[in-house]
Amino acid sequence: MKNKNSSINTIFSRILILFTIIVVIVVATTITYQFYKSTKSNIEINTSQTVIQANRSITSFITDVMQIGDTTLDYCTNIYQYGKDNVELRLNTILDSRNDIITINFFDMQGNIIVGTTANNLRDKDEIFYQSWFQNALKGNGDYYFSRAHVQRLIPLRYPWVISYSKSFNYIDKEGQEKVGIMLIDFSYTKLRDIMGYATIGKTGYAFIIDQENNIVFHPKQTLINYDQFSENIDDISNEIYGKYYSNDNGVNKLKVIQTIDYTRWRIVGIAFPNEMLLESFNSFAIALMIILAFSILITILIAKIISNYITSPIRILEKQMESIHKETFIPQPIERASLEVKSLSNSFVEMSKRMKALLEKIIEEQELIRKSELDALQAKINPHFLYNTLDSVIWLAEQGDDEGVITLVTALSNLFRISISKGHEVITLEEELEHCRNYLVIQQMRYVDKFSFNISIEEDIKDCQTIKLITQPIVENSIYHGIKYLMDPGIIDIEAKKYDTNKIQIIIKDNGNGMSEEVRKSLLTTDKKKHLTDGNGIGVYNVNMRLKLAFGDEYGLNIESEIEEGTTVTITIPLTK
Fold first, then answer.
1. For residue 238, which of 212, 217, 220, 271 has the smallest C-alpha distance?
2. Stated pTM of the model
3. What is the CATH number of the domain that holds 471?
4. Are residues 501 and 471 in the same domain?
């Protein structure tokens, strides 16, 4: 074949005549499609059956719990007729016969115990009165209520994981008057976990339970969810009650089967991964299919290689020109011997190269300005949720008549915004920066009562040193929301500012929170801003690090040390400038 100005379309049209294996591909595709449909149908059936069986098991257990409630209600409706000691003996007999029932208690409208299996050493009635299971049953007007999994706090120093079944009922008191009370039956969360343990779907599929408010009642990956290492997309099933459908969550194809559990208004959701299950079934089928296709493709490759060498030679020349475009002295030359399309592409590339040389310096300057503008915009953002929650706390304190608390909170908020604005100045003193951080912690400490404490110390001779503002608050915010928030015990945040070497200052922020994995720690200071925005954390830390490097140089910025369940230490290094 001689070199002619032929189009790529004409050249490949000649090649396509040789593709006799197209018939094989069509047949193979048809067989594969039928196999796919059959396997997909089996996956849907197996997933539905698993969810149905789990639903039946849970419904059976819930029905059993409700029957126990109905039986015990009969005792307590006429408690003084049966005798309180006799009723308590019957309740304990039921409790002794069931290892999945934790407590059976009956309370009056004020939270006082009437009779129950944990009648002694209970918490104060006010603490019981404001618990969610009590309030929901109180507002239910006779309806029953099933809670999600929670730590029951009836008895001090005893905190079992339970699901509460509560219901209001009428009883006759000592004076013979009809009163309203609240029944509580706590059953072990372990029982629900054992039932759902059998709801396995393939190798990676699973099932979980949500309540009517789309809160997770049970999830096999609850521990990972608590540590923000796994999330479940609840939004797309929030309005679904029954049925099955496919969805794509972050690029992962999922089959979701939903059924409503009787009596509880819970929904059980089965998650299957059709692609993985199809691959498991496809292996043996694919072997035979691949042998046929491999033979056909081998012949096609041998023929196409000869022709593609002829076609792609000028394209490779153009590719080498493109690889050399970064060299300042390189000037690309038009390709003469090639197809019409490649010649047109080459001419366009030459013209584009000339324009790129002229615009390169301007682009570099603009990018630097854009980079600084993005950081300024991130710095100026005020979290509306933080402001809303703070004002909501002010209202709550005012309603409680806590004038001193209102004054403290409003003063801290005022100082927080005063230093944030700082008359439009970017540079403030180190003492002002730490005062801003202290006000933020005061606000958060009043919002999360008894959740954490903090200490701030600064060496006297560096108080007047200059720094760019808002570099400690984003770090402390991360410590609270991602380190201390999920601790059972109160957290501690220590902030220390001191001289380092002769011309540097270190601000060390240390917490005893959950810590983070090595992968998360490394990602916090990367340039992948899209990932930070997707994860919902880290953008403030990234912003602080970049602002410090832009203001003072690459030797300054953040250093993060952390271990899971050991806490996190963030060190901010800035120059010592009076």
1. 212
2. 0.45
3. 3.30.565.10
4. yes
